[in-house]
Every structure is written in structure tokens, then in C-alpha cells.
Design a protein that fits this description.
- There is one protein chain.
- This protein has about 375 residues and is an alpha/beta fold.
- Helices cover about 35% and strands about 30% of the residues.
- It folds into 2 domains: about 170 residues, Acetylglutamate kinase-like (Carbamate kinase, 3-Layer(aba) Sandwich), CATH 3.40.1160.10; about 110 residues, Alpha-Beta Plaits.
- It has 9 helices and 18 strands.
- The strands form 3 sheets. The protein has an 8-stranded mixed beta sheet with strand order 3-6-2-1-9-11-12-10, sandwiched between helices. A 6-stranded antiparallel beta sheet has the order 14-13-16-18-17-15. Strands 5-4-7-8 form a 4-stranded mixed beta sheet.
- A hairpin with a 3-residue loop joins strand 17 and strand 18.
- The two termini are about 40 Å apart.
């Protein structure tokens, strides 16, 4: 009988009908013999809606008060999921906020760091045969203030709970079964990746892939928690993220498209928005590997996309890299490229990014 932590995102809880269907699947899994702990996000777009209300009242709302406000979303979810489960099997589920399970954080509102999870009430509930339903994304600070963990915080909660109660597995469910060679929304023939190591998954997440948030992957790496992704509606599992992957070390893993960047060419070089901290190589220098391929006139700007090829086989596929180079050098609307040991990233005019994306995907993944 395995002890399993499952996390469900907002799309899985967007409507009462979806919550009812989810409750049925949870009870079915419980009846097969597994002990379950469920972590949930806010329903649908609730967090964004709550933040919008705060921003409508103030240009700079107090972070403490915003945390109090947006933590409502997960509290709504845990109650509704518990109610739905108990309508099927009375008394089976019990809901807990982050503070109720002893999820202690630092005092950094809006982006708090987990310090510990006491978990006594979780262990007690499990001992009574119940299914704890936990509010993800939130905790309580050492100053006894409600805090939130930042975007993707429910994933981080699930990982931390898994480690705290020494669960056998951590399953994170969403409307995408796993990590693909490319986002299915951008590619006609994406390939599902069955297994990834932490470092590669972290690179993919930091570039904008949405299946797992980079903060949760970092936490899993530090705690040694294996994560398995899955599709909410079927229970099908997709990608396992663990310490060491059995994949060929000389294999390309994924192609990631981010079409929400802005490029600006000035007399001082290439610049990107300062809030995109993950793009650390945006300033021109000899050491970062960034190459400006096509400069715009001074002070011109361009809405651009980044396309990042991720994998440890970058230096061993000369023929494929030459094919990619031909695409890059033959297109005047590709403006820059960055190369590292695990990543080859280019910047291109968003107007042609999907075409370039699919050509490169075909080269490396067929």
C-alpha cells in the first residue's frame, strides 16, 4: 500500500463538474489500496482575478494583504474537493490550509521560501484512514503571517509534503500528460519524453515550459524527490523527473518556444527586459556566448521569440547543427544566438518564429 502525494492544478478544478469528476477518480484510486494526500491549486483563473482586484485598488498593494487575499483561492478549492469526496464517501476527506499542516516559511511575502513542514496533523489524518486535502501555494511565516510561495507554489508544496511525510511518490497532474520535445500547441508531431534528470528539467522549466515550475524542480532536486507528471482526466502518467535519467546522454531533449520577449538594439548592444532574469546572457560580452547575427538600426526594437534547443548532445551532432546553422544564417530576421553546454538558444522575429520552430524540430526530432 503506497503513500502517494497528488497535486492538481487550477484547470483540473475549474468547474463544479470537473471537481466532481476529480473526486470520483481520487476515491477510485483510494479504493485500490493507496493512501493519498491531495494538494490543490485555486480554481481556474481565481488567483489572477484576485490579484486584479487588488491592483484595481492600489498601484502598489501591501504584499501582506495580497497574500491574505490570494490565499483565499486555495482555501476555496480544498473545501470544495473535500465536500465532493465526502458526498461519495462520507467522512473520507478532510481539508487543511498551509498553516494547519505546519508549513512554515520565511517572511518574504508573495515569494516565500519553505523552511519546514511539521505535518503532525497530516500523519494523524492518514492514520485514521482519511484523505487530507491540502491548500497548495501557501504557508505561515515565522512571524505567524499568511504567506504565498510564488507562481507554481502548489507544485512546490506537493514536493515539500512528499519529503516531509516520506511519501513513496509525488504525482503532479494537469491538462498535459508530460514533457514533450516541443509544446503540442506549437508543433504538429511532438515526442513525449518519458524520463528526465533534474538539471535538464530545470533548464526546460526556466525557459518557459509550463508542465513543471522551476522552483518545484529545484526543491525536488535538493530533497531528492522523484516527480511523475500525469493527465488529470485519465490518470495516465507521462514524464518522470529524477536524479539520473536512463535516456541517451547524447540525445536532444526538447525545443522550447517563448514568444513573449522584446528585443532592442542600441549602440550599447542587445538588451532584453530586465524582469526576464532567466535570460542572464542578454548583455553582449565575450564570455557569455551570445552572438548578434543581424543588427537593427540604433534604438529600433522588435517583438521577438526565443527558441531553445535543450540536451547534452549539442556538441556531438555536427550534421544536424549544420542544418540548424543554415536555417539561422539564411534568415535575416533571426537576430541573435546563444550557445552553452546544454542549450542552444536563438532569438527571432515573432512573426516567423513558428515556422523556424517547426523546421528545427523536424531536424532534431523528425
Amino acid at each position: 500500500m503506497a503513500l502517494v502525494v497528488q497535486k492538481y492544478g487550477g484547470s483540473s478544478l475549474a468547474t463544479p463538474d470537473k471537481i466532481k469528476a476529480l473526486a470520483e477518480r481520487i476515491v477510485s484510486r483510494y479504493d485500490k489500496g493507496d493512501r493519498l494526500v491531495i494538494v490543490v491549486s485555486a480554481m481556474g483563473n481565481t488567483t489572477n482575478q484576485l490579484e486584479a482586484k487588488a491592483n484595481a485598488l492600489s498601484k502598489d498593494p501591501d504584499p501582506r494583504e495580497v497574500d491574505m487575499l490570494i490565499s483565499i483561492g486555495e482555501r476555496e478549492s480544498i473545501s470544495l474537493v473535500a465536500i465532493a469526496i465526502n458526498s461519495i464517501r462520507p467522512g473520507l476527506a478532510i481539508s487543511f490550509t498551509g498553516s494547519q499542516i505546519g508549513l512554515i516559511t520565511d517572511n518574504n511575502h508573495r515569494n516565500a521560501r519553505i523552511l519546514e513542514i511539521k505535518g503532525d496533523r497530516l500523519v494523524d489524518a492518514l492514520g485514521k484512514g482519511k484523505i487530507p486535502i491540502i491548500a497548495g501555494f501557501q504557508g505561515v511565516s515565522t512571524d505567524k503571517q499568511i504567506t504565498t510561495l510564488g507562481r507554481g507554489g502548489s507544485d512546490t508544496t506537493a514536493v515539500a509534503v512528499t519529503a516531509a511525510i516520506k511519501a513513496d511518490s509525488c504525482e503532479i497532474y494537469s491538462d498535459v500528460v508530460g514533457v514533450y520535445s516541443a509544446d503540442p500547441k506549437n508543433c504538429d508531431a511532438p515526442v513525449l519524453i518519458k524520463e528526465l534528470d533534474y538539471e535538464t528539467m530545470l533548464t526546460i522549466s526556466s525557459l518557459g515550459a509550463k508542465v513543471l515550475k522551476d522552483a518545484a524542480v529545484e526543491y525536488a532536486h535538493r530533497l531528492g524527490v522523484k516527480i511523475t507528471t500525469g493527465l488529470t482526466w485519465t490518470g495516465e502518467t507521462g514524464t518522470t523527473v529524477c536524479k539520473e535519467s536512463s535516456l541517451d546522454k547524447n540525445k536532444f531533449i526538447s525545443l522550447v518556444l517563448n514568444d513573449k520577449l522584446s528585443y532592442k538594439q542600441t549602440k550599447d548592444g542587445l538588451t532584453l527586459p530586465s524582469d526576464l532574469s532567466r535570460v542572464r546572457f542578454c548583455q553582449l560580452s565575450d564570455s557569455c556566448g551570445l552572438i548578434v547575427l543581424n543588427s537593427l538600426p540604433d534604438n529600433n526594437s522588435l517583438h521577438c521569440s526565443s527558441l531553445a534547443l535543450v540536451g547534452s548532445g549539442l556538441r556531438s551532432e555536427g550534421v544536424k547543427l549544420n542544418d540548424m546553422k543554415n536555417i539561422i544564417c539564411g534568415n535575416s530576421r533571426i537576430v541573435a544566438a546563444d550557445i552553452s553546454d546544454i542549450k542552444f538558444e536563438i532569438y527571432t522575429d515573432t512573426a516567423i518564429s513558428r515556422d523556424v520552430f517547426n523546421k528545427i524540430h523536424h531536424i532534431f526530432f523528425g
